[in-house]
Design brief:
three-stranded mixed sheet; about 75% helix; mainly alpha; Growth Hormone, Chain: A; single chain
């Protein structure tokens, strides 16, 4: 049953807004101007995702040097590259329900500290098995961090610019990955591949301190859990211009029956089940594409005859194009039907994957296609965060986003292992690139199905 209280505004003689009585916190969030408070949250989330992107790309960049240094075949690194992805999946599956129960900030701080310490262990690994184990533990922490950062930003962002806020934060991932290439190209020749992993450990440990000092807890979470009104008022006053001293109660205008089920069970209940499965399918297929390109692009480029320096440059084009695509998708999704934006992005990704397989002899044209694919692929994939954040209610939002990412990350595992297997079977790089058109087509079809099924519904009240 939806409780409908009125949001009461009182204007004083000085022109300042005063809130009184029972206040709908979502309405207050939507009416608030975007302020420094919002930018602090976005920047902290951006840094979390930048570290995630750096860490994800780092193994791809150090793989050639690592395999040469240890005298192993490049395809033998498949388990190492996949270990972090497996940890990312399991970390997300656990962290989502934990965040819906314990709070967004607590889980974020712990996960950031955890993957910083695990990254430190990775930097000093001496064997392939030890490296695989530490990469798995690092993934556990990273998997818990990203969905909670996205949830927190989505719950503070006004509806009119929510997609842009989420996608601006999400730019941290491709920029972190691109920065990983630039930093790795300088660190590896001068200090060895261990130094790249050490840099990936120092950053999250420093960020943990910033999260403790500056990151607020989600007011929507606090309201939903019935926390102390003084705490809610103190946080809300930081982004609401009016006086909240006379507010007696904050509430969320959401369906209260959702709280009768656990957050995980909610995902599999009606009317969310079909949408949940479509989000999982789309995210899974998107990450098959993304991690094949991000983890194996330098190796694939070497197989096409490009030297290492040009391979790193071509790989960076994909990630830099991704930054433009993420911002463009966020801007478009705040103005047009979000599902159509995501679906179009995956459809164009399919076409560019086919084109890359046919045209790889002219480096300028080939680089341009990689850049365009970065725009469409990253734009579509980042848009799924908004689709999930606006699809689920507060009670299970973190779980919904985290489980979409957790299940989807297995697509990353499948992608990296599939590439290793195809390379061992002597598949050519252009054939592998063309094969990526298949998951792109499936992702576009799943998004279209979700759009048609839920076109007339607004299930989120977010």
């Amino acid at each position: 049953m939806i409780r409908s209280y009125a949001l009461i505004h009182i204007t004083t003689g000085g022109g300042d807004m005063v809130y009184s009585g029972k206040v709908n916190i979502q309405q207050a969030i939507d009416e608030a101007p975007v302020s420094r408070f919002h930018w602090v949250i976005i920047i902290l989330g951006f840094l979390i995702l930048a570290i995630d992107g750096f860490d994800t790309a780092a193994m791809g960049y150090i793989a050639p040097t690592l395999s040469s240094d240890w005298g192993i075949k490049r395809q033998d690194l498949g388990p190492v590259l996949s270990a972090a992805l497996l940890g990312l999946s399991l970390g997300a599956l656990v962290a989502g329900p934990a965040s819906d129960r314990l709070g967004r900030k607590k889980v974020l701080v712990f996960s950031c500290l955890f993957f910083g310490l695990a990254s430190l262990g990775t930097a000093y690994a001496q064997t392939l098995n030890t490296l695989t184990l530490w990469r798995f533990l690092t993934g556990l922490g990273l998997g818990a961090a990203m969905p909670n950062a996205i949830t927190l930003v989505s719950e503070f962002a006004p509806k009119r610019c929510r997609s842009m806020a989420i996608n601006t934060m999400y730019c941290g991932f491709p920029l972190g990955a691109a920065g990983g290439g630039a930093i790795s190209s300088w660190l590896i020749p001068n200090y060895g591949w261990h130094s790249v992993l050490l840099a990936g450990a120092i950053a999250p440990l420093a960020l943990t301190v910033l999260l403790i000092l500056f990151l607020p807890e989600s007011v929507k979470y606090l309201v939903h859990r019935g926390k102390d009104i003084v705490q809610i008022r103190r946080i809300a006053q930081r982004f609401i211009a009016g006086d909240l001293a006379q507010v007696t109660h904050f509430y969320l205008d959401e369906e209260r029956t959702t709280s009768k089920k656990g957050s995980v069970a909610q995902l599999f209940s009606q009317p969310w089940l079909a949408g949940t499965l479509m989000l999982w399918t789309t995210y899974f297929m998107g990450l098959v594409i993304y991690y094949v390109l991000l983890s194996w692009m330098p190796t694939l480029m070497l197989g096409m005859g490009y030297p290492l320096a040009e391979s790193a440059w071509l790989t960076s084009l994909f990630t830099f194009g991704g930054t433009a695509g993420i911002l463009l998708a966020g801007w478009m999704m705040d103005r047009w039907e979000a599902h159509k934006v995501v679906m179009t992005g995956f459809a164009l990704t399919m076409l560019f994957a086919l084109a890359l397989g046919f045209e790889n002899n002219h480096i300028v044209l080939f680089g341009g296609l990689i850049f365009l694919m970065g725009i469409t692929m990253n734009g579509a994939q980042s848009g799924l965060q908004t689709l999930a954040a606006t699809f689920y209610p507060t009670h299970c939002r973190a779980t919904g986003i985290a489980w979409m990412q957790g299940v989807g990350r297995f697509g990353g595992v499948a992608g990296t292992m599939m590439s290793a297997q195809l390379l061992s079977q002597q598949w050519q790089a252009d054939s592998i690139l063309m094969f990526l058109s298949v998951p792109a087509l499936v992702a576009a079809a799943a998004t279209l199905y979700k759009l048609r099924r839920y076109n007339a519904q607004n299930l989120s009240a977010a």
